[in-house]
Each structure stands twice: as structure tokens, then as C-alpha cells.
Specification:
It is found in: Nucleus. With 315 residues, this protein is of the alpha+beta class. 17% of the residues lie in helices and 21% in strands. The chain has six helices and twelve strands. The two termini are 34 Å apart. It binds a DNA duplex (16 and 16 nucleotides) through β7.
DNA sequence: CGGCTTTGACCTGCGC
DNA sequence: GCGCAGGTCAAAGCCG
């Protein structure tokens, strides 16, 4: 895999569900473990490209397009792609955007109003608004890598070990449920997350993380029992045998009961109402349209807007 | 009183 | 240019 691309941890389940593959470039095989309990979708990308080593696995772009070619897979191995996880930000990403985290933060709208006005004044004194606008357009902000996953939960805000401050809430179009915006409470930590409940299946909470924590998990406050009462499904599993230079942010190590996993049916189709692949058995498939977070996630990755994506719930 | 949520206003990007 | 939607700000209020 080229250094240009993010490192990916790629989990796929097989029909008999007794194998789990995890790859970051070269394929590494992990025995069946709790790690097939992730469901991630990511828009972390470099130059709009996002892929696995095409010689080993399907091209990630094709995967998102639903046009991945699985012909090289044996029938028994055709994956019900279950989870995709974007890992480290490659060094080359920094050169594409801002040169420092603080600058990135400013570009990303972290300036408060006072700072914004000040910056406007600084920028605007000698130059016209048009120029400022053009400049801003040129410096199109580079989004932090973002990860999203879906959890079957009655609780909206799942405890992930970090402290969060809610900074906004917005009504979501076509959804009775609002979207909540949180920022990591730790000073200078750029991580944000968004929570919204799926209106397709109201028992599903969609969580999207943006950025990476620059600190360890804070110690629980006095009287903070969240961790102590966290259900087993929320506990952080032991790390797999990842290679030295691989990272796996602990906040993403949230187990989701396997029967609640979402699955992407990797067959090549543009028909939203197509029949699921027969190799995936004993599943009820629900339509999962891409509004809200998912829509945003996929819009900002490489999926054409008019293309259908088929998501299904494994039950 | 500190930390957090709520919520209306504001900013920004995008499509028409 | 306008309107819409997403995202953010910040003052006010709540709570332990």
C-alpha cells in the first residue's frame, strides 16, 4: 500500500462467521475474536482517494460505490463487508492542508466570534471581501478524518471514556431526532463527535468522531460512575496483535453485539431494492437510506451523490 | 461555583 | 443573489 493512503483496518465477516481478517496493507489474519463487533464507516481520505491494497482486497472507492469486484474471491469467501476503519493520518496529509494543528483548528471553524471578527479585520484591511473569499476557497479546509459507527442503544450518549461538552444541537432534515454536537472537554483537544438517532430504526444511535485525541482518557471525576456501570458491550476489549506502527484509538473500541451489526452488501448494483446476496443467510434486511450523518460522511468521501448505497442491518 | 446543557443567533457552503 | 441546511457560538440557565 502506498504511503499516500491512510492505513486501514478492514474487518470482514464470512458466511460461517468464524473468520475475521484484518488488514493494513498486507493482510493480517486474526482469529475469531470480539473484534468483529465493530461497525465503522469512515471518510478519512487523501486526495479523495481511499482504498485498500487493490491487489489484496477490493478498492475502497469501489466498495463505497457498490461496484467492488469480488470476482477474485472464492464463493465461500465473498465478504459481507461489515466494518471499515480508517487509521492513521499519513504524513502527506499534513502537507495538503494546514501546517499545524492550531492552524487546522482555525481553518476548521474553531475560531470564536471575537477571533473571527479580528481575523476578518486583519484579512480585510488591505484586501477586498472577494479576495478573502477567494483565498478561503483556495484554502479549502481539510477535514479531520472522521469515523462513524452505529450502535443499538436506547441511550443517546454512550460513555466512551472521554469527557464531552455539548456545544450545539440541530434539527435534522427528514428526521424527528435532533443531531447533537460534542467537543472533547480536554483543553486543546480537537476531537468532536456528533450523535444522532436513526429515524429508520430508532433503536440505532449513529456516532461520528472527528479528529484524534491528543491525550489519554481522563480519570473519571468523583462520583462519575459511567464506566463502572457500563454494560459489557461497552467495555474496551484487549488490543489485537497490531503491528508496532499501527494505532487503534481506544475510543473506537466499542463493542457492538454482533446480532446488531450493520452490513454493507458488497454486490455490484444500483438498485436500492435488489435482493441480498444469498450467501448471507438468516438475515432480515432493512432499507437504510443515507440521510444525516451517513449522508454527510459519504458525501464527503468519494461516493457520487446520485448513487445508491445499500446498507442493511444484520439481525 | 464549576461544569455542563439549552437554545436562538450567527456563519458558511452549496445549489438553484 | 437568495434560500436552505449544516455547523458553531455564546449567553443564560440548570445541577450536583
Amino acid at each position: 500500500m502506498s504511503e499516500e493512503f491512510n492505513r486501514f483496518y478492514y474487518h470482514q465477516t464470512f458466511p460461517d462467521d468464524d473468520q475475521l481478517r484484518n488488514t493494513s496493507g498486507g493482510a493480517a489474519t486474526f482469529p475469531h475474536s470480539g473484534y468483529n463487533t465493530f461497525t465503522f464507516y469512515t471518510d478519512s481520505s487523501v486526495n479523495g482517494q481511499q482504498m485498500f491494497d487493490p491487489t489484496s482486497y477490493v478498492n475502497f472507492t469501489d466498495f463505497l460505490h457498490g461496484s467492488a469486484d469480488y470476482s477474485s474471491f472464492k464463493d465461500s469467501e465473498k465478504p459481507a463487508v461489515e466494518a471499515v476503519y480508517g487509521g492513521e493520518i499519513p504524513a502527506t496529509l499534513n502537507s495538503l492542508g494546514s501546517s499545524s494543528a492550531s492552524e487546522a483548528a482555525e481553518d476548521d471553524g474553531y475560531l470564536n466570534k471575537g477571533k473571527k471578527k479580528k481575523k476578518m479585520a486583519e484579512d480585510g484591511e488591505g484586501s477586498s471581501k472577494k479576495e478573502v473569499k477567494a483565498k478561503k476557497k483556495k484554502e479549502k479546509k481539510q477535514r479531520e478524518p472522521r469515523f462513524a459507527f452505529m450502535t443499538k442503544s436506547e441511550v443517546d450518549h454512550l460513555d466512551d471514556g472521554y469527557r464531552w461538552r455539548k456545544y450545539g444541537q440541530k434539527a435534522v432534515k427528514n428526521s424527528p431526532y435532533p443531531r447533537s454536537y460534542y467537543r472533547c472537554s480536554t483543553e486543546k483537544c480537537p476531537v468532536k463527535k456528533r450523535l444522532e438517532r436513526s429515524f429508520i430504526d430508532t433503536s440505532i444511535v449513529i456516532t461520528a468522531y472527528e479528529g484524534q485525541h491528543n491525550h489519554n482518557q481522563p480519570a473519571p471525576r468523583r462520583g462519575d460512575m459511567a464506566g463502572m456501570f457500563a454494560p459489557p458491550s461497552m467495555l474496551v476489549p484487549p488490543l489485537p496483535q497490531l503491528q508496532e506502527n499501527q494505532s487503534f484509538p481506544p475510543e473506537l473500541l466499542v463493542q457492538i453485539p454482533h446480532q446488531h451489526l450493520y452490513s454493507y452488501n458488497g454486490s455490484s448494483t444500483n438498485n436500492l431494492y435488489h435482493q441480498p446476496q444469498t450467501l448471507i443467510q438468516h438475515q432480515q434486511f432493512h432499507q437504510f437510506t443515507d440521510h444525516g450523518l451517513l449522508q454527510d460522511i459519504y458525501n464527503s468521501s468519494c461516493v457520487p451523490k446520485q448513487q445508491h448505497r445499500d446498507f442493511h442491518i444484520l439481525q
